[in-house]
Amino acid sequence: MHNNTARIKLIASMAIFGTLPLFVRNISVSSGELALYRATLAAALLIIYFLAAGKKLNMREIKKELPLLFFSGAAMGINWILLFQSYRYTTVSISTLSYYFAPVIVTVLCPILFRERLTAKQLICSVMATAGLILVVLFQKDGGAAQAESHLLGVLFGLGAALFYAAVIILNKYIKNVGGIERTFFQFIAAIIVLVPYVLLTDGINLGSLGGIGWGCLITVGLIHTGITYCLYFSSLRELNGQETAILSYIDPLVAVIVSVAILGEPIALPQIAGGILILGFTLWNELGSSKK
Q1: CA within 20 to 30 Å of 244's CA: 4, 118, 199, 252, which one?
Q2: What's the Cα-to-Cα distance from 132 to each of 83, 94, 253, 258, 279, rounded to whole Å?
């Protein structure tokens, strides 16, 4: 019974994550400003959750991990900025597929950072996922030089987001004594600390430019797609094994691609579909192998 509830939570969180671009597209502020509001709203919601649940933070343990929490939170904030920028330059499908190259980056870096052995299977998965990325980058619907340049920028921003998400994953490997929701809360706070000066020094605060739809989408992204969804995600991980989590996590990119093609009407070429299958298929195969351990 507990496992069924956990599965529902994880499926719901992944499906909600997949609809994120649909709301981001309707928020007319800069990517940095949007990332700041996302972190702020989510952190505020978690404070309410801690108070309502009577949950006390173990500051003694958290203090030991503060530097790692800060750097991982900063990486999370930069990751959001780059992902939102990617949505502005290319289709949601291409942004998502570029972003899901993060597991390959982690696979390549772990042998260097943790002295883990790179297996033949991991090497094959990395090479095939890279081949998929090449298909995604090179083959697109013909739209002229300007569109090709915009597409390439979108892919580069997506890969930048993947790089910083990989940094979040790797930094979290070092955090041993802080629970999932508490960890996320402090990462939100760290993201806010980093994003406030960035926003003030770049585009500034432009909330006045938002209309009713923009405000509704911003609140949804902050409270639903970040605060509530992160809580659902982390609470589900306790009840599910690694293999099941890995499989269900791929609901996110599948929903994002469906949103891109079916709702937003964005084009995607057949070679790009093949590239997406290579990226998602081989990264999933790689994760299934590692999750058994």
Answers
A1: 118
A2: 19, 11, 15, 19, 5
